[in-house]
Each structure stands twice: as C-alpha cells, then as structure tokens.
Design brief:
Layout lengths: L6 E5 L25 H15 L2 H4 L2 H17 L6 E5 L2 H7 L15 H19 L7 H7 L3 H9 L12 E6 L1 H5 L3 H6 L3 H9 L2 E3 L11 E4 L5 E9 L2 E6 L2 E2 L7 E3 L2 E6 L10 H6 L5 H9 L3 H4 L5 E6 L1 H5 L5 H6 L2 H9 L2 E3 L10 E4 L5 E7 L2 E4 L2 E10 L2 E6 L12
Helix pairs in contact: 1-3
Length: 410
Amino acid sequence: MSSNSLQLSTPVQRYKDPIALQAHRPLLLQIKERRSLSFSALWIFVFGINLVTSATMQLLPACLLLALVAGFSSARHAPQETHAYLDVNIDNVKKMILEYRPEEELEKSEDMMSDLAARMWHETIKHAESEPVTLDPIPGVATSLGLTELVKAVVAAGLAETLSGPGPFTVFGPSNEAFNNLPDWEKKAIKDVKVLADILKFHVLAGKVMSSDLSNDLVATTVEGKKLRVNLYKKKAGLVATAQCSPIDLNKVDNAASNGVIHVLNRVMFPPSGTIVEAVSKCPAFKTLTKAVQVAGLVDTLNGEGPFTLFAPTDKAFAKLPPGALDKLIANPTELAKVLTYHVVAGTLCSPGLESSTAKTVEGQDVKVVVSGAGVTVNNAKVIAPDASVTNGVVHGIDTVLLPPTFELP
C-alpha cells in the first residue's frame, strides 16, 4: 500500500471504485451497514426530535450522545472477518459518496440516511481541511527534536537567521551525542566560529530532500556548493543509510519544518579535503603510500570520479614488511600496482554499512571483511582509522599491508 493512502474498513460489500482521503490529512473511516447501530443512532438523531414531546426534548441530547457512542463503538469492534480493506482517495470519495442528491430531493430519496450521513461527513472533512497547520522554521523544529547542541552551534555560528529564512533547506542534524562524542581536537577546532560555520553549512542542502529521495551514492550539493555523498546499505539486520559515512537515524527522518526538513545524524560530518590522493598526501601517516601511488602510476585513477574505497596502509604498516621488500616493490612499478590495487574496492564502503563478507578489489581478487565487537578487519589487517570521507569515495586506515593471495614478494 502506498504511503499516500490508508485503509478504509467497510462491511462485506465492495464499491465499484476505491475511495480515499488526502495523504497529508489521513482519516480512518469505518462505515457499517445501514442496519448497524451507528446508522440507527444517526436515524434517532435526525428524526428523534419529531417523535418526542417538548418535555422529553431536554433529555434527548444525553440519550443521543450515548446512542451515537454505542453505535460507533460497535462499528469499531465489529468482527474483523466482516470487513474488506480499500485504499482511499479524496477525489473518489467526492465522486462516489459526496455527489448526493440536491437539497429539494433529499426527502424523496430512498437512500436519505446515506445521503444525510454523506453530507455530515463532507462537512466534517471541510472543517478539518480549513484548519491551518503551522510549522516552525528549522531552528524551532531542531529544538523540539531535542537537538540542543545543534541549536547552540547554529546560534554561535550566526546561522540562526539564515536557517529561519524561506529556504527550503534540508538539514542533516547531528544529535547531542554526535557532538559530545567528537574527539577533543575536533571539539577544540569548532570553537573557531568560522570553522564551525563551515562545518554546519556542510550539513545543509539547498532544496527539500525527503528520505524517500535518497539513493545509494547520491551526490547532493550543499548550500556552499560542496558535494555530499549519501549511501544506502541493505544489511541482514536491515537498511543502513549514511551521509558522508555518518549514520542517518532512520527513526528520525523527514521532520518537517516551515522552510524544509531535518534528518537526524548520529555523527558530525566534516567536509572532504579532496580526492583520495589529495587526502592521503595531506596526512603525515601516509607518506609511504603517497610515494607508492605515484610510482605505480595510480594517481590519475585514484583522482578519478570513482567512487572508490581505499584500505590505506600507514607508514607503520609498510614498515612491517620483510626487510628490503618495500624497496624491491618501489623498484618494480608493475608489481607495486598489483599490491596497491588489491587495497581498492569499487564503490563507497562506509564502516556503518559493512558486515562480514568478501569484497572484490580492483586487482581482481577478493578481500575478506570481518565485522565484530572488536572492530573491522580486512584479511589480516585491522581498520584503525575508519571513514575518512573524500570527494570520490572513502579511505580507511589499516595497520598491515594487504598482499594478494597469489602474490609473492620480490
């Protein structure tokens, strides 16, 4: 059943056309057969005044209330097997039920009670439709969601007025725990208002993007013009969604605001520092890897569109190779390229989306991924620095160089 429909419980009979209500104001309607207590109560309500004396009139409202409650209660608790379920849509409702007879013909109608019930129902719907729905702008909705750390950060960065503007915006809002779990050096970094503002703007997309619009490897544009990558993973335990490898809380998505929508994140996102090659070359822990990529002629490949996942050996990982092995690899670019491409997997494999399995590398052979309470391992290497998001994928730092099964060190 589609998200913009709901179930209508009707007694036994099926109508020629399915009937429905508006998706944004779903109403659950249960209609009993004409002989049911609900219509009997309605009959009493319409004609009771003409059947009682003025003395009885004073007692009628309370009696009718009890009769109506009893009637609708009976309808609500009717045996389940006597009901059929239909999708409902407001246009078909108006076409089938609300095209009742003209006022002057009402009293002549053999279906007068059904027509009158339809009138009353129609008036109820019109009344509900006339009630305005007021939504707060994004900062107000963030407050109502309990995202107090995010709201404080938005105010500190001077973005409250912007995020209260017309928009529309899509905000990936980190939870309080996400802010509290930042490493000390990152907490220190975001005390700089400019740095904080840049990070927060990376959480904001121009336009309204609902969770149903997300797809794997979707690249969206932030308000600053930067690229943000969304990934979806179908794990045995269920669907996992990430934005820049930060888990999206799927129980807290599509929180509507007057100027957009908020999706709650379980980690703070940081803007990528470039492609795989650019990011690795900027990190002091990957000097050997940077040189090896250049020697093997893989710079253009790893600067390409991708996306790729690189399991990146640190300098300490290369130092664990047998004596002289690294120098021999550097002297043989073809063999070096085989080793390095065995560290690369096509696609974006963020750690929240990983589960124990195998993954085919660009070199052609598989690596074995094991996810446990102790962390993530790839073959015999431990992932020690996961989820460094880059513009063309993700980098995971590992503590051991991976060697293809059929490869022999020179």
